[in-house]
UniProtKB/TrEMBL annotation:
Cofactor(s) needed: Mg(2+)
Pfam family, one: NUDIX
Protein name in UniProt: 8-oxo-dGTP diphosphatase
Reactions that this protein is recorded to catalyse: 8-oxo-dGTP + H2O = 8-oxo-dGMP + diphosphate + H(+); 8-oxo-GTP + H2O = 8-oxo-GMP + diphosphate + H(+)
Amino acid sequence: MAEHQCVSFMLIKNGKILLERRSMSKEHDPGLVTIPGGHMEVGENQQDTLLREMEEELAVVPTKYRYLCTHLHKTTEWQKIHYYVIDAWQGTIEAHEAEEVFWHDLCEHHADIESDRMALDSFLAQNVLA
């Protein structure tokens, strides 16, 4: 089975992370609580996908971001998810594709998929050691 390249974005603010509840009509992970993100399109690199998906899904543009890690996720397909930490952005967050978006305490693992929880662990480990 082929791996589909994806980019997820961890918006961090005041010790909280922005999570989404996916729509029940989504093909992948319907109804689950996840870190927002999306599939890379043909010809895109990770940064292109990050910028496009943040605008499409949340109506914001990242102004300060960094690569964090990459994990595999098995849903109806294999996804290779590249996680980015978004420390600053422009615009007002809106839920364009998810059922809802909400802020959640970083220290509580509320994400429903294992790769998201592993990315949160990576973020917490790097920021405790920093």
